[in-house]
Amino acid sequence: AHDRPEQALHKCRKRLKNVRALLRLVRSGDETFCGTENQCYREVAALLAGPREATALVETIDRLAASFPE
């Protein structure tokens, strides 16, 4: 992932989804804490969404371009 920042970005977003899912599982233990933490992770994920989407679009265009050479 150090060689490819786009992979690190993708992994980070996946981990954030996992953490948020875990918070939903334990939410009944401390709803205030889990709600606050979930909000923080949601905001971080939102910050990463734009760059990840741009990366995914570039990867898709590259694959399409390779499929249709001039």
Q: How do the strands and helices of this protein lay out in sequence?
A:
Blueprint: H1 5-26, H2 31-67
Helix pairs in contact: 1-2
- Which spans of ≥5 residues are poorly predicted at pLDDT below 50? none
Structural class: mainly alpha
**How many whole angstroms does the radius of gyration measure?**
17 Å
| Count of individual domains | 1
- Please give the number of β-strands: 0
Overall residue-averaged pLDDT value? 91
Total DSSP helices = 2
Q: How much helix, percentage-wise, in residues?
A: over 70%
Strand percentage: under 5%
Describe the biggest sheet?
none
- Element pattern in H and E: HH
- Oligomeric state of the chains? single chain
Short descriptors:
mainly alpha; 0% strand; single chain
3D structure, described in words:
- With about 70 residues, this protein is mainly alpha-helical.
- About 85% of the residues lie in helices and about 0% in strands.
- Helix 1 (about 5-25) runs antiparallel to helix 2.
- The model has no long low-confidence stretch (mean pLDDT about 90).
Give a brief rundown of this model.
This protein is mainly α. It contains two helices and no strands. Helices cover 84% and strands 0% of the residues.
